[in-house]
């Protein structure tokens, strides 16, 4: 019997800090509105193409491997989560493989947006449980800033998202009850159009149709904010409870909830619904905004740096986002 455990975590965010006050100069918004509605104070925007999605993911992966003391030659596969891949195709996973010079190991891209990291963790966990691979890099990275409409027209989404990358290294072990206990994945495509970027895409005559550059509704993120909010605060706690029940555990067993960072108000509502005290929930949206597939590995890497991950502790991960997709994972460290 094989199980997987996280043996290294890493993250990378661009140095370029964009505060709410910086956004005030570019659109009709205020620091007060953004902080009150979302909790965000600042985010990172990639300053040059040197910070592409794959490049940030590769930097996070190097940190995860270094912290684990594992050489790249000993990694068997890459699973990469992003909604903002460097190319239309191929995905960013193979670009990370090329940057890191990782031979011919498989590189798989997962498209599950804000739930992408937990989906990827689940895919990697299944490969390890089946005995197919021993060590897998799971990476989540995003370059959102290049797709945002950073004007008053796009303020409903432009103030929310940021750039960055995070990674974990999974390794096979045989100690039942340790590492990733279970993952739980869900989606509901009926809500695909409630949060999306539609173009460029192949769902029309031409991928790049005349006038695409002016088609602001389709080339920038479109979100029915209140609808997404309503579903997020229902689905995230539901997924945590599903994971706890599956493992015959209760919320009192959870040492740390690591929620996807879409809005501090969402995290706080999830926390209240699960009746968790402040010291058992970790948020960092204030510094980075919503980095989609990168939020959870960035949180994990910061917790690691703060020495807040102890052997035997139980971590509950949960995410909700475009698709709709939602997911949870329980990890016994
Ligand atoms: O990670 C993927 C999942 N995403 C989410 O979970 C996001 C879920 N949704 C949300 O977090 C919230 O719905 C938002 C933060 C996006 C919006 O907050 P809200 O309290 O739902 O505001 P709203 O959309 O109802 O907008 C209220 C007002 C509107 O003006 P009117 O129509 O009342 O005149 C907006 O135009 O706020 C306006 N507004 C802004 N004002 C200043 C929207 N964006 C901004 C802005 N600055 N950046």
Question: What keywords describe this structure?
Answer:
single chain; 333 residues; alpha/beta; Peroxisomal Thiolase, Chain A, domain 1; 2 domains; five-stranded mixed beta sheet; four-stranded mixed beta sheet; 13 strands; 32% helix; 23% strand; binds oxa(dethia)-CoA
What's this entry about, in short?
The chain has helices at residues 20-24, 31-38, 53-68, 92-100, 116-129, 155-158, 216-219, 225-246, 264-274, 285-288, 295-305; strands at 3-12, 17-19, 42-44, 77-81, 107-110, 135-142, 164-173, 179-187, 195-196, 222-223, 256-259, 314-321, 325-332. The protein has 333 residues and is of the alpha/beta class.
Ligands present: oxa(dethia)-CoA
Largest sheet: 5 strands, mixed
Q: How many separate helices?
A: 11
What name is given to the CATH topology of the largest domain? Peroxisomal Thiolase, Chain A, domain 1
Backbone CA Rg: 19 Å
Sketch the topology as an H/E string, one letter per element.
EEHHEHEHEHEHEEEHEHEHHHEE
What is the CATH level 1 assignment of the largest domain?
Alpha Beta
Number of structural units classed as domains: 2
Question: What is the 3D shape?
Answer: globular
Helix content: 25-40%
Biggest sheet, strands in spatial order? Answer: 1-7-6-4-5
Termini separation comes to 18 Å
According to CATH, the homologous superfamily of the largest domain is Thiolase/Chalcone synthase
Structural class: alpha/beta
The CATH architecture designation of the largest domain is 3-Layer(aba) Sandwich
Tell me what portion of residues adopts beta-strand conformation.
15-25%
The strand count comes to 13
Mean pLDDT: 97
- Which regions are unreliable across 5 or more consecutive residues at pLDDT < 50? none
